[in-house]
């Protein structure tokens, strides 16, 4: 390892905790928040999907997703996540954290919106379109997971690295919580606007046509934090450790600035 590279690493490890550290926590944490929201919000709307698209006339209970469809809708994003972690983890080492992180976030924005716009003339085509976008959404999330953690690790100093990474990972819980709260708010708003009788009274009118908007809104809202995270992340420089060790450039402003603050 070159002497100047070693000096940069040492400076980064002993650097004082500064404002950019907390900026990195917020940005990387928002990535984890978005990941958790997008991954787990689907479980909040599966019952509604079954009620809308798999209604059975004269059935004593509302419609529900068949087991194979439910497994596909709930699990396809995790398959994409596995593939995305392997691909974007490798690509992040080749092209840099900043550029690849932006790619994953843009993929998440597009696929979140695409999931909400799932189209088709029947239940099968709607579920197929939804699974298609959910897979590629998971692919983007899979890239965001390792990159968010890596970015925070490479921005941190040695003293606070564990605490900062823990703070970033904690945002996943807030993402799950945020998804549940938002789904409740949307459901209450639609219930107040479109009052419907219970299923036992009128199976058809118990599910109003406007209910189809609820699950679409819940899924599409995941694009908002992803877009905001993209904007903030693109304003940050490449991590100094990547710049110094992989790009082998110890003269960039971000590296020199952090080194001088050590």
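-> sequence recovered:
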């Amino acid at each position: 390892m070159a002497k100047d590279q070693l000096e940069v690493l040492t400076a980064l490890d002993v650097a004082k905790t500064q404002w950019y550290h907390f900026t990195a926590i917020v940005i990387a944490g928002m990535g984890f928040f978005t990941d958790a929201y997008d991954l787990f919000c689907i479980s909040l709307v599966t019952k509604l999907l079954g009620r809308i698209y798999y209604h059975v006339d004269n059935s004593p209970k509302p419609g529900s997703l068949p087991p194979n469809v439910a497994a596909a809708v709930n699990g396809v994003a995790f398959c994409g996540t596995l593939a995305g972690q392997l691909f974007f983890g490798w690509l992040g080492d080749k092209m840099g954290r900043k550029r690849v992180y932006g790619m994953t976030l843009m993929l998440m924005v597009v696929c979140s919106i695409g999931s909400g716009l799932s189209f088709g003339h029947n239940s099968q085509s709607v579920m197929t379109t939804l699974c298609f976008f959910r897979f590629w959404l998971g692919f983007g999330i899979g890239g965001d997971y390792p990159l968010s953690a890596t970015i925070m690790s490479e921005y941190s100093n040695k003293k606070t690295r564990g605490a900062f990474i823990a703070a970033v990972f904690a945002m996943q819980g807030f993402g799950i919580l945020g998804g549940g709260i938002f789904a409740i708010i949307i459901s209450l708003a639609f219930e107040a606007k479109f009052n419907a009788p219970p299923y036992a009274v009128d199976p058809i009118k118990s599910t109003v046509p406007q209910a189809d908007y609820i699950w679409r809104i819940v899924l599409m809202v995941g694009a908002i934090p992803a877009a905001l995270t993209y904007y903030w992340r693109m304003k940050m420089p490449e991590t100094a450790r990547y710049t110094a060790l992989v790009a082998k450039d110890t003269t960039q402003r971000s590296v020199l600035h952090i080194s001088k603050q050590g």
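The mean pLDDT is 86.
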